[in-house]
Automatic annotation (TrEMBL):
GO MF terms held by the record: protein-arginine omega-N symmetric methyltransferase activity
UniProt-recorded name of the protein: Protein arginine methyltransferase NDUFAF7
Species for this entry: Monascus purpureus (Red mold)
InterPro entries: NDUFAF7, NDUFAF7_sf, SAM-dependent_MTases_sf
GO CC terms in record: mitochondrion
Any matching Pfam family: Methyltransf_28
Length: 504
């Protein structure tokens, strides 16, 4: 974390003078850097904020929270810990400056950092790479040649952006939808149409929801394919995007209107600018729900376990008056984290990993001298569990098609830990903690598909299938479309660390 590039980045982020504390307490209204997302082997203004609490409603100091002081903390924050309010990302949603003088659970800090509409990563600082013309894979000599060509397209794309709006801290990432356009979208379309005609046609329309649609490329590729291959199904197709980012929702509509087939597609599309976690509309009809490379950015809770008692402690962060972050742990789990641990334990059909290690070795470890008191953190996908709750409650007839990374290199310490990175001067800068300057860092997690599949089945009662990204592509793609001249196929080899989860 002490590289010259990182030090220069931090100087850039904190160049503006710090704000002073407010004199009064106010009540509040309620797809990634380039090198991270590239392949299986390489992925890569502040103001005081306080919530009014009346004397009758103020929490007692002994509320189950505890601050674990470590030697590397620069100061004692015991008093701040007692007095700072515990807030959520929803509490901060309408605030334009990053918070100070608050406590947050880990998942809430990550949500605020990624999705706050005023300074969040996906709201202000992230751009999705578009390669322009689709790659002509059949005329590319081999995989390394495709990699070089992609690098050239990246440079050209960012050069064009810098001509109009230079940005040393621009966050840029790409998705398989963009890299393998239109073939990736056509692959998903084949899966959708085949399953629709097998089980729903002609009694129901083909209704497709996509969450986190980026540039809207997947939507266009799917609609183009259905229109060109099955006009009768196309007439019954409705495509609905659920997009949390206002800027991306506007971009999706612009790209739809600018497309060659806008006149035909426009009546089939609805773009809903809303977080899926604010969804409150009951959808009676059967539908397909696409969550492609989205769930890795769902926030997680950090859980550590006491080696002697094996009891969990839930992690959070205190942000002091100077904007410094201090990690803490609570012996009292909040309802969401507690429920996840119960559901996982009850639903598990297979053993799942634990930071406590194998049971047979725990006694020997505890008897050894100088062993630590608590484990490294385990990051549990509490927000993903809530997503499954929403699917079950509001989309009872859904069929989920989800894809994401099952493992990630260069993660921060811990079990199921995230990669935390940013880009500065077109270079990837990794860090070793999720508690970073909000809005400038992508925080994304691997997905344990064994655990996730069991939890999804327990919540929704639906049957599922998990397969590797490569196996899914071999089954549904026309893989000759993405073969290079020497027979290599980047569509199959670039996402070895990705899996697919489908409702059957």
């Amino acid at each position: 974390m002490d590289s010259p590039v990182l030090n220069q980045l931090f100087r850039q982020l904190f160049r503006h003078p710090a704000c002073q504390s407010l004199p009064s307490i106010r009540s509040l209204p309620p797809g990634r850097p380039q090198s991270i997302r590239q392949s299986a082997t390489s992925r890569s203004q502040c103001r005081s904020f306080l919530t009014r609490r009346t004397p009758g409603k103020r929490k007692s100091a002994d509320d189950g929270m505890m601050w674990n002081r470590r030697g590397d903390y620069p100061k004692d924050i015991s008093e701040e810990f007692k007095t700072y309010p515990l807030v959520t990302a929803k509490d901060l949603r309408h605030r334009r400056e990053r918070p100070r003088q608050v406590k947050m659970m880990t998942r809430e800090f990550i949500d605020d950092s990624l999705y706050n509409p005023h300074y969040g990563y996906f709201s202000k600082h992230a751009t999705i790479f578009s390669p322009g013309e689709p790659f002509d894979f059949n005329n590319i000599s081999d995989g390394p040649a495709f990699h070089r060509l992609l690098g050239e397209r990246y440079t050209e794309f960012e050069d064009r952006l810098d001509e109009t709006q230079p940005d040393e801290a621009r966050q840029l990432w790409h998705t398989p939808t963009e890299l393998f356009r239109p073939y990736y979208g056509e692959t998903i379309a084949r899966y959708l149409v085949s399953n629709y005609k097998l089980t729903l046609y002609p009694y129901h329309d083909l209704i497709i929801y996509e969450m986190g649609a980026g540039n809207g490329t997947m939507m266009l590729n799917i609609l183009d394919f259905i229109r060109d291959t099955d006009h009768e199904v196309y007439q019954r197709t409705k495509f609905k995007i659920i997009e949390i980012s206002p800027s991306l929702a506007s971009l999706q509509m612009k790209n739809l209107r600018d497309s060659l087939n806008a006149g035909g597609h426009i009546n089939h599309v609805e773009i809903i600018n809303r977080s899926i976690f604010d969804w409150n509309t009951y959808v009676h009809s059967p539908c397909f729900f696409l969550a492609l490379e989205v769930i890795d950015n769902f926030s997680h809770d950090a859980i550590r376990y006491d080696y002697k008692t094996e009891l969990p402690q839930q992690g959070g962060v205190l942000i002091d008056a100077d904007g410094e972050f201090h990690e803490f742990y609570s012996t009292r789990l909040d309802p969401l984290a507690s429920r996840f641990l119960r559901v996982r334990q009850a639903a598990a059909q297979r053993p799942f990993p634990s930071p406590l290690g194998p049971k047979l070795l725990r006694g020997l470890r505890n008897a050894a001298p100088f062993h630590p008191e608590v484990t490294l953190p385990e990051y549990i996908p509490t927000r993903l569990m809530q997503f499954f709750d929403i699917l079950d409650s509001y989309f009872p007839g859904h069929r989920l098609i989800a894809s994401d990374f099952n493992k990630l290199p260069d993660a921060v310490p811990g079990l199921n830990a995230p990669v935390v990175q940013t880009r500065y001067k077109r270079r990837t800068v990794p860090v070793s903690t999720p508690f970073v300057h909000q809005g400038y860092f992508d925080i994304f997690f691997p997905t344990d598909f064994n655990v996730v599949e069991d939890i999804y089945r327990a919540i929704t009662g639906k049957l599922t299938q998990v397969m590797s990204h490569e196996d899914f592509m071999r089954r549904w793609a026309y893989i000759e479309d993405t073969e290079t001249r020497n027979g290599e196929n980047p569509l199959l080899t670039w996402y070895k660390n990705a899996s697919m989860l489908m409702t059957v």
